[in-house]
Amino acid sequence: MLDHKDYLETLNKARRKRNRRWDPRYLLMILGAVVLIGIVAALAMSLKKPASGRAAGEPGQEAGPGPGATPAQAAEPTLSQEEKERQEQQAAIDEVVNSYQNLGLVQVSGYLNIRETPSLDGKIIGKLSGDAGCEILETDGEWSHITSGGVDGYINNQYMLTGDEAKSKAKELVKLRAIVTTDNLNIRKEPALDPNNVIGQALLNERYVVLGQQDGWIQIEEGYISADYAEVKYALNEGRKMDLKAMAINQYDNLVISKVNNYLNVRAEPKSDGKIIGKMTSKAAGEILESLDGWYKIKSGPITGYITADPQYTATGQEAKDIAMQTATLRAVINTDVLNVRTEPNTDAKIWTQIVKDERYPVLAQLDGWVQIELDSVDEEDGSEGDKAYISTRDNNVEVRYALNEAIKFSPAEEAANAAASRRSKVVNYALQFVGNPYVWGGTSLTKGADCSGFTMQVMKQFGVSLPHYSGAQAKMGKPVKSSEMRPGDLIFYANSGGTVNHVAMYIGNGQIVHAASKKSGIKISTWNYRTPVAIRNVLGD
Question: Which family does the entry's similarity section mention (predicted)?
């Protein structure tokens, strides 16, 4: 039992406690505590909630529109530069694949032949590598008519994917490629314009994977090509024309090759005394039109006639193909009547002579837009190379391709009743027996080798005419002749860019000459104006 004092103390505590409940300061403290607890709880929840577009626990800020963001910006995620480039590349690949209306994709380990006709006997005109695409124009049985890389022909479709399967596979094969836009483009070892730098040629429409690009040059696996003559874009590999040497041979369906050391007569009739209408020089080619008893009727160059079928003098079949592959050389075939020859590969250089379309000129070097050809320009004093000869290829006046020698027109000078004509005929026929023999600077042997003036000097010596061993000096012998009045046996002279005579040939009639041309060509027959003559002389004295 509480005493009076304890009772009063207990009663006062109860009063104080009741009064504190309604004290505004006490209520404010309680409210503040509740708010603080709410903030802490909200913060904890936000930390546990996954960020937008991220997996729970992934580091990084929550993606979301910033202040003032438009609805479109709020809807599109921000892409990295790498992702943008990947999407652009994929769009370009899709565009390439979709550009084919009826895509065919070759599936072979090597390459597939493109033929001129839908037959295994059809002439091969190109090839498709094992990853190349083509546009299928029409399918008939096991053959498809296609176009690819500028080649239009037929392929066996058992080696080709088509439809959705081709499109799906093609997306893996589209690469950044350089597509050649000119007929012949030099491939160079280094990115520099240097004739000694050329290591190959790329043809029109050929495609090469791009390894890099720098200062006007495109680096490909084979070397470097000029960016001025190629378009760089995403593309599939496509067809290519036949190997250039093979193309030179494949133009013949039934090839025959002359195996003689000098020349083989082409006759108007299939008999040994038939009229001679042309000559096939050593390793010259022709098309066999018909086989007769011991004779072939052939077409070679501008000549159709008969040659002996004796295998001692002619090769056919695989033997002919093997010889052709060894002897086909790069030639400049002129497509215009007259073409300027310059001393340097630019249009500001001096024109020192002109050439004609009846000749095929050996190619020494190919520059972009220019070709250096062999033009029998040797310094007779020391045997060094004379003027370099360059012709422009920019106006499609020149076709550079591998080619074989073919027959040339030739009819021996008929022996007339008068002695002068008979003598000239004998001079020409004597000179012609040495066609095919070698050129040797300073030489005077008609069989082992002679230079141009040594050749004419030795021929004329057999007929009592003495000439010096120098073309410049020979050009002063005898008397001048107009081109309209020249006769077989007359000498024709040619000059270098300075106007100095540096070459001599003998006129044999029918607009042709025989001459010791060069180390490459030896003693051969050419068109009399294969380059511009500067003088014609009658040294026979009639």
Answer: Belongs to the peptidase C40 family.
